[in-house]
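Table S2 (text version). Query chain:
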Amino acid sequence: MNVYVGRAAVGLAVSALTVTLAACGGADDGTGGAGGSEGAVKIGLLLPENETARYEKFDKPLIEKKVALLTLGKGKVVYANAMGDAAKQNAQVDTMIDNKVDALIIDAVDAKTIAGAVTKAKAAGIAVVAYDRLAEGPIDAYTSFDNEDVGRVQGKALLEALGDKARNGKIVMMNGAVTDPNAAQFRSGARSVLDGKVNVGKEYDTVEWKPENANSNMAAAISALGKDKITAVYSANDGMAGGIIAALKAAGVNPLPPVTGQDTELAGVQRIVAGEQYMSVYKPYAREAEAAAELAVTLAEGDKIDGIINQMVSSPTTKRVPSVLIPGTSVTRNNIGSTVVLDGVFTIEEICTDKLKATCEEIGLK
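Corresponding structure-token output:
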């Protein structure tokens, strides 16, 4: 990833987005907010799959809410989910073009495959915002988290968990899907911290980020390395961490080695409470979703986005894409209450099931 604007700008932009979020949180009637729309813009929203809990629970409703706020209730979000199928998503872009949307927010299933569809949308006069993943093709803007920094956060947490045992045994690297450019950036960030400090025994790219594929890969790693030789597992996200931990348990590994994650899914947070997963990276989806909605509405109305962006990022096909990048935070047992609970992502009641209540109380989550 090529970054052209200093990181000092990130904090300012995130602060501004947080203020916007506060305004959004109490305004379901679509009044107020920055800017506002004179016309009833139509925003197409294409999300990649529904196996990861965040898309349907957070991203979609947050984007819909922000578009309504920015357009005084006149704007409309037209939604489609590709269910992990890149060809289906390309067809969905065609449908959005036929529906004459004013701007598209696309979280690509496959960053390369989507490029042709992006080109068609642009030819039809539709602005395109790449969301969460840096799609190839002539995109107008991009918003995501600082993915290399997410990898560094994961790597640092793993070293912290290992302490002076970092050189003992082998760690397993369970990366995301090769079709997702974010996965390469997570890996790069993690490797920048881990290389030279740990011994990597096995490394895998996980097809479609699926937990069952991570489970199979982990079973293969255990067979190849031996269950007593694996000291830690770098897992790029929480879904895969669930599959990895299931494989470790099935092999009789006890105690479980530290396992990383990302997305702070409810199941992942509960595994952290239970001591099965060491950490996850909390990515405040509201800030990312709001940035995408603001970029899309602003572009749809033909206005400049200079005051929204905080960095410039280059894809393999497009140089200096105006971008909003947002940092993530390491979540362990020590700070669940001050992160995902404080921000209203999950309540203590949701996290602390009957099975976990005693453990929750032990770690001060009550």
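Notes on Table S2: Confidence is low (pLDDT under 50) at residues 1-37. The first strand starts at residue 42 and ends at 47.
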